[in-house]
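Request from the bench team (R.T.):
"We need a structural guess for the complex before ordering more S-adenosylmethionine. Sequence and SMILES attached. Just send the tokens back."

Command: build protein-S-adenosylmethionine structure.
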Amino acid sequence: MRCRWPHTCWAERTETMDGTPRNGTPLPCSPLDAGQARLIAESFRPMQAWGSRRDYYYTRGKLGSDPLYDGVLRHLPDDGQPVLDLGCGLGLFAHVLRQRGRQQEYLGVDVDSDKIARAQRAGSGLADVRFDCLDVQAPLPAHGGHVLLLDVLQYLDEAPQLELLRAVSARVAPGGRLLLRTPLATGDRRDRTTRVADRLAWLVGWMGTRPRHYPDPQRLQATLAAAGMQVAPLRPLHGRTPFNSWLLVAERL
Ligand SMILES: C[S@@+](CC[C@H](N)C(=O)[O-])C[C@H]1O[C@@H](n2cnc3c(N)ncnc32)[C@H](O)[C@@H]1O
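Reply to R.T.: structure attached below.
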């Protein structure tokens, strides 16, 4: 059901039995099955038997539990336009893209040079896939196509977040999409769980940057609309994870 509360219309909403608004139905998408996840994880096995298997187990667990990649693929047109993945981490989306038979050219960038080196090694067999080290707060590469920004925004302060959204919008081609997954400042239990988990990931060294700002949904939408994007209502994309993950789909008509 479409939102009936224009002043809070940042997400699709439905009502509970007592009339309380709640977030709309989560997107119908699922994590990879165990076999698909294991196949991709194999690319992250260390060369030597004594090498670290951290990326292998992380990848298996992440792909097998988070509906992110399936959810994003369902909203990414299969139209041959290139894909720019900002804050790509280990580049898991590139593997899923190719596993599902998509041929679109892919460039993933991340500020963490070590992750990029691991992404390059594991993705060396993927056709038309590149990874580069780049801070998304620096000028972005020239691009016209689709843009992904998956679980990255919260690592920037608010002003750079909005600036990035403007820069990204300028790189979405006509008919192209920005697919953005992000936690939001919703003030509920999922919000608190996500903040704790993000902070822990930074403290244990998995994330090289600490979380800085959890975005306000209306500001995100207003910024993208002002940049000429058509923005769909946010939908929950957390699957069975306890996190506060939302998908925003914005299109340049
Ligand atoms: C939670 S991970 C998400 C990885 C990937 N998008 C995915 O969903 O599989 C967040 C990533 O954002 C990257 N990141 C954080 N701040 C960044 C910045 N300023 N520029 C580029 N990448 C950044 C981190 O290095 C990390 O790899």
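Two things stood out. The chain has one domain: 66-251. The helical segments are 34-42, 54-65, 68-75, 92-99, 113-122, 158-169, 189-203, 217-226.
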